[in-house]
Amino acid sequence: MDLKELESNWIKEFPTPLVIAGPCSAESEAQMLETAQRLKESGADVPVFRAGIWKPRTKPFGFEGVGVIGLNWLKKVKDEFGFKTATEVANAHHVYAALEADVDILWIGARSTVNPFTVQEIAVALKGTDKPVLVKNPVNPDLALWVGALERLLGQDVKNLGAIHRGFSSYQKTKYRNVPNWQIALDFKNQYPNIPMFVDPSHICGRRDLLKDITQEAFNVGYEGAMIESHPNPDAAWSDAAQQITPEVLADMLGSIQIRNSDISGFDEEMGKHRALISDIDFQLINLLSSRMKISEKIGTLKKQNNIAIFQPDRWKVITEYANQKATETGMSQEFIEKVFKAIHEESIEVQNNIMID
Ligand code: PEP
Ligand code: MN
């Protein structure tokens, strides 16, 4: 079976978008129950409670999770407050323990997704389970590795799947802990529209003040859910303190986020007209670009015959100035037009270069 054929009906049992929230790490029974109680009382629509039991930490000798005892606390959260529960599994032992403790949803962390041996081990341990399994993107920006992990799960008949976008490592310091690289997640969504996509703003942002915008952006582009870290006393959290928010702040944030509809029925006729026009224009754009490249080839031949360098800075200056002027006249951003013309110019140089080499 192909990943593209999956129906992912599991998510339809939940409200959309599906919000999963809870502390980065389970720390104590009291902390877990307080988080659960305050999430309930805050009125936030959070059907699934998360907590990390085994924690993958970058440096050794820190807090590495409470281990299996935390599974009892998750069970209590489920029994006393009616949440479904979720935790991270990173090897076969974690899987057996989590299944035994009847955790409802499992996820594979970003540091595990990068390792095909680990993913394979987890997939085999999960064989045939109907529990939903969510796969975080690998820490490195590699779509194939992300998809490959889901394929390994499907290969073991694990069919209730989802993906979590938690951002990607970069050596450069940015305002994010893990840069979003939206394009990778959007490519995933385009190729596998049936697999629910969750945003994990906590690990993308690494700080509280950016959480709302990232979550809103994800819902704007039609993500099906979010996983957000929430702790009763964030500053005192044993892991990821700077990015956690209290249940009350979470409820406020969710209340202020606009949920957009992906269902266009009702105005599909009007939408259809606009889309037909857009397709028509795209077709014209492609034809125009093709005509432009053909002329560029002729120029390339001329340059070759007369032994002239391909790149003529003066000419490029005229083109960009004209483009900038037209951008302003037509109310478009110069930045956008510059990007488009750079791409066209690059291709043009490539075309002429091929003629020179010929
Ligand atoms: C987590 O969810 O707490 C976690 C460790 O996330 P990630 O795998 O995205 O780093
Ligand atoms: Mn965390």
Task: Walk me through the structure.
With about 350 residues, the chain is α/β, with parallel strands linked by helices. About 50% of the residues lie in helices and about 10% in strands. The chain has an eight-stranded parallel barrel with strand order 1-2-3-4-5-6-7-8, surrounded by five helices. Strand 6, helix 7 and strand 7 (about 195-200) form a beta-alpha-beta unit. Helix 1 runs parallel beside helix 10, helix 5 (about 115-125) packs parallel to helix 6 and helix 12 (about 315-330) runs antiparallel to helix 13. The radius of gyration is 25 Å and the shape is elongated. The model has no long low-confidence stretch (mean pLDDT about 95). Manganese (II) ion binds next to loops.
Features:
single chain; 358 residues; alpha/beta; TIM Barrel; Chorismate Mutase Domain, subunit A; 2 domains; eight-stranded parallel barrel; 13 helices; 8 strands; elongated; binds phosphoenolpyruvate; binds manganese (II) ion
